[in-house]
Design brief:
The complex is a heterotrimer of chains A (269), B (322) and C (270). With 269 residues, chain A is mostly helical. Helices cover 81% and strands 3% of the residues of chain A. Chain A is built from twelve helices and two strands; from the N terminus they run H-E-E-H-H-H-H-H-H-H-H-H-H-H. Chain A has a two-stranded antiparallel sheet with strand order 1-2. In chain A, helix 2 (50-90) crosses helix 9, helix 6 runs antiparallel to helix 9 (187-203) and helix 7 (160-169) crosses helix 8. Residues 262-269 of chain A have low confidence and may be disordered. Chain C is globular, with a radius of gyration of 22 Å. Chain C has twelve helices and no strands. The chains are: A mainly alpha (269), B alpha+beta (322), C mainly alpha (270). Chains in contact: A-B, A-C. The interface between A and C is large, with 88 and 83 residues.
């Protein structure tokens, strides 16, 4: 028994270190490969921004399109998802619960299936099919539940019905209450949801691959293209660009979450 | 100036079929403070929500302010100031912004709003607190802000839903006095919901005692206490002993009307079962020789187990109709 | 009445989007799925058709194995990270969660960097004097990719679950003479049970539908998403693609629902 203890105590830290390496080392390799003159030769071939420059030349349209789609997705989820989150927090009717379940379906089902369904249903609407708005539709379906739930979670943690009654007693109608009481108090959830929506939209591939056309390629679609047809350095440099776009969002999200757990007002009894 | 509130045949049945309020008629006089008193679940809060416009009465009920039918008006169109048990202060605004909210919604000019806010802060003794965040306030301060916010819009009716219940006992008493002073100064028609009879008696020009969705009795604190209309009122407001007297049957008597003397000097003798010293007086639980319990009070504590003579004056017996 | 009508109007835009862009297209998908020459039987083709069945036989064990290994590794790592305080722990935990935001194609590419022709594993094995090890484009590479996107999710879930473990239970077991292994088996694993089940189910479901990773690594390997995709693009066999993707969708949804009811969690959204 005594002999076994050290071995037992070692398993967890060793496995933890290995797991961290497994998850982090490839990212580091990818970053390095993206700025190495010749990856096959190694770092001694010199560091360069040449590949990043080539990515910019070849794929900058995808970067702009991804930003455009992400911001448009954000706009739609703000306009549609914030009110939806409010309804989810305010109502416990069966219909609202059913709607909540239904809206998660596009997230629970493989993106490929959603993409296929959209292509088969709208493929004949040529202009719609060819425009970036077609991709926007897929991204909205996929991200809407995240915004709505993030907002609903924050609103459920405060005593919203009474706050609204108080505002109504002071003369505020439904729309006034929504903008002066509901939205300001949902701010944390809206912000967290917004970061989530933008991050998900920028990284979405499974639906987008079915929806894109040669003229509407998003960043992940471009990534798949570069991995298949370009040299490793270019794929890596492109990945580096993607990381530079997405990591700040991830850090902001974690900062927000850490701040939220510290200052979240405790629910009154 | 103050508003007269009338309710006609107002009942409330919830969607699940429970009857929260039996059909009732009620008139609240201009400028008076009516207290709705009763145990939890008696319908007092439902009644308040009907007046506020937060709930609609069942078909056929009618609510009027100064003769104008407001039954179909939602709360935001009724100009009622409301104070909630949980304060319901907006966490996204500071104290001054909370107080100014109703004025802004109404579209008052900024200068007029600022002046009114300052006046309200002064009135509720919150000068200097305007910029405070809500979570920096104590319970008593929050309650004052809630009151200031409700009063700021000069409401036609002030509705208070257990506004002091969330506070601790000492603070509750001092705020009760403050509130009485304020309501007296404002001369606004107010409806105050509470389950605390001391609060009710201190604040109510009239008290409506509710039980199981009905108004059992409505009257001044003195009326309710000295001439309870029903046995429920007698027992809910103040303490009362139920005693079976030979030849008279059951009588209800308040502890302060039970006179104690030396054994043999009264109508009958009894034994002191428990004596609780309360400071200004002592509460005594007597046990009569035929095993009944009788509450009394004295200025001087009496040892448990001692024998006393009891005198009851029939003039003080309570006589509820039911 | 007024209030519920206002709430309905507030949720209406979301409802319209859902009906127009998900419910109707998916209903259409159901019809297309049955429009082939086999009709409704297309929905059984995943077991009756040899190629599709082979694809299913590839996909299910692969996803299941990846889910089990991920949960196993993540349980140890999650409990360890939750309990140990060390400098830079927050940074490590943040780094571990980054892969959650990577699209499948990026995960596939990272596997290529690890186990591809110019990959790290190949170089290391060559320098050790062995034959160059390259497995990125095989089932093993796919497995590695599935681990890559599954482990972070499981670690987060299990860290949260480990936070709620009552240390008194373990101390009680120890005081009764249980060895560390016994404590793990008798106390920790049962307490983590719901989180383990939920994580495994989410990983399994994600693996079943993982298209991007497989797309980058190998169009050679027949896993269901790839099969569906090639039926659609290479053979224009819309009926087969539709019926297979619906079967896949229903399957993943059922797994997530089952996990949710088993673990008592509120949400199936991964």
């Amino acid at each position: 028994m005594r002999m076994k203890r050290p071995a037992f105590a070692l398993i967890a830290p060793v496995l933890t270190v290995l797991t961290c390496l497994f998850l982090i080392v490839p990212i580091g390799m990818s970053i390095l490969a993206g700025v190495t003159e010749n990856y096959f030769v190694g770092v001694r071939s010199g560091l360069t921004l040449r590949w990043v420059g080539e990515v910019w030349g070849l794929y900058r349209e995808t970067i702009f399109l991804s930003l455009q789609v992400a911001l448009a997705t954000l706009a739609v989820t703000l306009v549609v998802g914030v009110p939806l989150g409010y309804v989810l927090a305010r109502s416990d009717s069966r219909w609202v619960r059913a709607l909540e379940e239904a809206l998660v379906l596009p997230v629970a089902m493989p993106g490929l299936a959603t993409g296929l369904a959209l292509v088969l249903a709208f493929g004949t609407f040529r202009d719609f099919r060819a425009s970036w708005v077609f991709i926007l539709v897929g991204h909205v379906l996929f991200t809407l539940p995240f915004m709505a739930r993030s907002v609903a979670a924050v609103l459920s943690s405060i005593n919203l019905p009474v706050l609204e009654e108080a505002a109504a007693s002071l003369g505020a109608g439904f729309v006034q209450r929504f903008f002066t009481i509901v939205v300001p108090n949902a701010k944390g959830g809206v912000l967290a949801g917004a970061l989530m929506v933008v991050t998900l939209s920028m990284g979405e591939f499974n639906i987008t691959w079915m929806l894109h056309t040669p003229l509407t390629k998003t960043l992940p679609v471009g990534l798949a293209d570069s991995y298949a047809s370009m040299r490793l350095e270019i794929g890596s440099a492109y990945t580096l660009v993607f990381l530079l776009m997405i990591v700040p969002l991830l850090i902001a999200m974690q900062w927000l979450a850490a701040r939220g757990t510290r200052t979240l007002p405790s629910k009154r009894g | 100036m103050a508003t007269r509130i009338t309710l006609e045949r107002c009942a409330k049945t919830f969607p699940d079929g429970t009857r929260a309020l039996e059909p009732l008629d009620l008139a609240i006089e201009p400028g008076e403070c009516l207290v709705l008193l009763g145990p939890s679940g008696c319908g007092k809060t439902t009644l308040l929500r009907l007046i506020a416009g937060l709930a609609a009465p069942d078909e056929g009920g009618r609510i009027a302010f100064d003769g104008t039918d407001v039954t179909a008006r939602p709360i935001e169109a009724r100009r009622v100031g409301m104070v909630f048990q949980s304060y319901a202060l907006f966490p996204n605004m500071n104290v001054a912004q909370n107080i100014a909210y109703g004025l802004k919604i109404r579209g008052d000019a900024p200068a007029a709003t600022a002046a009114r806010v300052a006046e309200m802060l002064r009135l509720t003794q919150l000068e200097g607190f305007g910029e405070r965040r809500i979570d920096e306030l104590s319970g008593g301060q929050k309650q004052r802000v809630a009151l200031a916010r409700a009063v700021a819009i000069a409401p036609s009716v002030l509705l208070l839903d257990e506004p002091l219940t969330a506070l601790d006992a000492k603070l509750r008493e001092s705020l009760r006095i403050e509130l009485k002073r304020l309501l007296g100064a404002l001369k606004v028609t107010s409806v105050f919901v509470t389950h605390d009879q001391a609060e009710a008696m201190a604040l109510g020009d009239r008290i409506a005692v509710l039980s199981r969705g009905r108004i059992e009795q409505i009257g001044s604190a003195r009326d309710i206490y000295a001439r309870p209309a029903t046995r429920f009122v007698a027992e809910f407001v103040g303490q009362v002993s139920r005693l079976n007297l030979p030849g008279r049957g059951e009588v209800l008597v308040r502890p302060e009307h039970v006179e104690l003397g030396a054994p043999g000097t009264g109508s009958f003798d009894a034994t002191v079962a428990v004596c609780t010293f309360l400071g200004n007086l002592s509460a005594i639980e007597l046990c009569t020789d035929d095993g009944q319990t009788l509450l009394a009070e004295t200025r001087v504590p009496v040892a448990a187990g001692s024998r006393v003579g009891v005198t009851l004056d029939p003039a003080y017996f309570l006589e509820p109709r039911s | 009445m007024r209030a519920s009508r206002l709430l309905f109007l507030t949720a209406l835009p979301a409802l319209v989007i859902f009906i127009a862009f998900w419910l109707l297209p998916v209903s259409r998908l159901v019809l297309v799925g049955a429009s082939g020459k086999e009709g409704l039987a297309a929905y059984l083709s995943v077991v009756t058709n040899d190629i599709y069945r082979a694809s299913l036989v590839n996909t299910v064990p692969l996803s299941a194995a990846a889910a089990l290994v991920s949960v196993g590794v993540a349980a140890v790592v999650g409990v360890y990270l939750q309990r140990r305080e060390f400098r830079g722990k927050r940074v490590v935990v943040s780094l571990l969660t980054f892969p959650l935001a990577f699209p499948g194609v990026v995960v596939g590419f990272l596997v290529i960097l690890l186990a591809g022709r110019q990959g790290l594993i190949g170089q290391v094995s060559e320098q050790l004097g062995m034959e160059k090890v390259v497995f990125a484009y095989s089932l093993a590479g796919l497995f590695l990719g599935y681990l890559y996107f599954s482990i972070p999710r499981c670690v987060l879930t299990l860290m949260a679950a480990a936070e709620k473990l009552d240390p008194a239970l373990e101390e009680a077991a120890r005081s009764l003479g249980a060895s560390p292994w016994r404590v793990v088996i008798d106390v920790i694993v049962p307490a983590l049970g719901p989180a383990l089940v939920a994580s495994a189910a989410i990983c399994f479901a994600t693996g079943m539908g993982a298209f991007g990773t497989a797309f980058t690594l190998a169009s050679k390997i027949n896993v269901l998403p790839i099969t569906i995709y090639s039926e659609f693009t290479n053979y224009a066999n819309f009926a087969a693609a539709a019926s297979l993707s619906l079967v896949l969708g229903v399957l993943t949804w059922l797994i997530l629902m089952a996990a949710r009811s088993l673990s008592g969690q509120g949400s199936a959204a991964a």
